[in-house]
Amino acid sequence: MPPPTTHKSSEQSEIVDTSLVNNFSGYRPRSNQLESKEKLVNRSDSELDNLRKNYLNLYDIVPIGIGTLNEFGLIVGSNLSAGIMLDTLHSELIQKPILDFIFSEDRAIFSSLFNKLIKGENRDRFNCDLRFIKKNGVLFFIRINAILLLNPNVAPSIEIALSNITDAKLAEAALSDSNNFVETLIKYDYGPIVIWNTNLIILKVNHAFELLTGLRSKDILGKSLADFATADHRGMANELILQTLSLKRLEKQYINIKHKNNSVRIVEWTSAYVKDQVDSSIKFIIAHGEEVTEREISKIKIKQQIKELHEAFLSTVELANNMSAVRDPYTSEHARRVSQIAVAISIELGFDEDQQEALRIAGILHDIGKISVPSDILNKPNKISPIEYILLQQHAQKGFELLKKVSFPWLGVALVAQQHHERIDGSGYPLGLKGEEISLNARIVAVADVVEAMSSHRPYRAARGIQVALETIENGRGTLFDAHIVDVCLKLFRDEGYKIPD
């Protein structure tokens, strides 16, 4: 007989089913966590992939060539910039020796540094500047920064960074050439050159300055230019050098330098200053000198010679005046005194020494033409005849003709002889000139001539005295004589007590 069938109630079945569901539902949170973690991993992988792509993009576009060398110096990896820099396709760089791109004369330098780094004989990195060569033979400069990479169970490698420094090297070379050029100019310049700082300390001198002082550079540097000046120029030298710190240049200033043998060198200095590129402050001053010792000595000699020639010339003028005194002693003394009065007036008018000297000579020679007048007319004790007066008047033109042939150091000496009898209103002789047609020196001598003549004794009359002479020019003021010159002459005698020298 079959076993009895057991029947479960629906309530019991429902209880069993609910229990299973309840037990299974406890695993759902764990499943969700796994799903979340999976999503996170997937997202991280995506972000990592993006970062890797960004890194590779950055790796390729940086302006620095980056590469990896194996232990044999072969390129085993590089970015695009390295290929561009080395003028080679990126694909062609791989497994190519780095030495192929280095200029032959610089390969030994790189090889030495590379081998020491691989063998551990050097620190873990090196850098150097080398010449590289392109396919077309053009050289360019690369700065290499290399670092050793060590990984366990892997052969060592070297990571390199390449920077093109050609422009910087060319600029450096140009600056070096410029500096060498300046150094050469300074070194071989015939003139002494000194460079000092803002503390007035000499930083550099050239060979010409060494010769100037008789000292070596080591005995000069660290001192001031004033230390080498002669005792009488030291104070002035200090003052001039200090002025250079306030942007004042030396412009052909004389600072005498003492040689170690105690001889004196006369030096003419000119300076310039060099400013700082950043704040425009003075960095140092450079002074260039020209030794003018021989020139200045020559000047002194020439001045002495000129003085001697001048004195000889004056002696000749005096001699000419004295020779005329043999025939006419009155005219000779008259000319000398007229010259003195004329110079006194010229001083009041503000003439300089050279102008005074010109007037003095013109005054002495103003009547030189009288040597052509017969002495019996000049020394006649009574009134001369009209014909004799005509002959006497000719002395002005005769004097001009004599003196115009002489090369005087001054202009107008001959004109004074010709024009000293001309009058402002045109009533004078020999040309009848008026006003400023008459030279200034001739107008001065005309006044001095009348004052001296009327106040002195003559063969044909007695002296009329200084007061009468002054009244005469005063009455002729502005008509016969220059008004301003008359005023100066009257002031000279009446207010300042001037007296005609004996």
Overview of the structural elements:
α10 packs antiparallel against α11, α11 crosses α15 and α16 runs antiparallel to α17. The strands form 3 sheets. The protein has a 5-stranded antiparallel beta sheet with strand order 2-1-5-4-3, with helices on both faces. A 5-stranded antiparallel beta sheet has the order 7-6-12-11-8, covered by helices on one side. The protein has a two-stranded antiparallel sheet with strand order 9-10. The chain is about 50% helix and about 15% strand. It has 3 domains: about 110 residues, Beta-Lactamase; about 100 residues, Beta-Lactamase (2-Layer Sandwich); about 190 residues, Hypothetical protein af1432 (Orthogonal Bundle), CATH 1.10.3210. A hairpin with a 4-residue loop joins β6 and β7. With about 500 residues, the chain is α+β, with helices and mostly antiparallel strands.
Runs in which pLDDT lies below 50 for 5 or more consecutive residues are 1-16
Helical segment count: 18
State the separation between the terminal residues, measured CA to CA.
196 Å
Please name the CATH topology of the largest domain. Answer: Hypothetical protein af1432
The secondary-structure class comes to alpha+beta
Strands in their spatial order, largest beta sheet = 2-1-5-4-3
Q: What is the element string, with H for helices and E for strands?
A: HHEEHHHEEEHEEHHEEEEEHHHHHHHHHH
**Which value, in Å, is the CA radius of gyration?**
54 Å
